[in-house]
Amino acid sequence: NVNIVISESEVSTVNVSVEASKDEACYTPMYSWLTNLITDPFMTDLSKFGGWGNKSIVIDPAVAYCGSRCAFINGTAVCWPNSGSIDASIAWQPNKTYRIKAMVKAVNGTMNMGVSNEANVSGGSDFSIPQSDTWVEFTKDITTGANATSGLCFFNGCGASTGFIGYIDNWEMYDITSVITSDIRPTENN
How many angstroms separate the CA atoms of 86 and 68, rounded? Predict the structure, then answer.
């Protein structure tokens, strides 16, 4: 943190605290030419997410995977109301393929990454993340059904989870339909 001093006519002084982190130094978007559907991939502000239960933002570069913050589910047992869920609202489009990627740490058993209201996504809607003492990369592709509507992509201690304490950082999700149906990859300038 750095403090900036602002003075006006030497009558009053205001200290402004500034927090900086090097998120970009350890984060490279999977698809820089596509829109990340997770509005806060660095997990800095829970007001940008829905969810329930025991969830918070940890402000500690020694704990976060990247930068100064990450999201934390600190439950006492599996599922509602004892664990927690961090939910990103997604406007699912019918018959599209999406790729989910995040850095996660499941502390006391498996954690769950899942989707809802995707209208019969191929391959299921709850995905188990193995317990690990270190950060691991979670990547999963899903394809929505013909009747997909607005729903969620979530990280929680429920569904496919055996644990209820975990961390998430560098969360990304993209509609990759154009990527997998084309041999031509757009350049960064297009």
Answer: 19
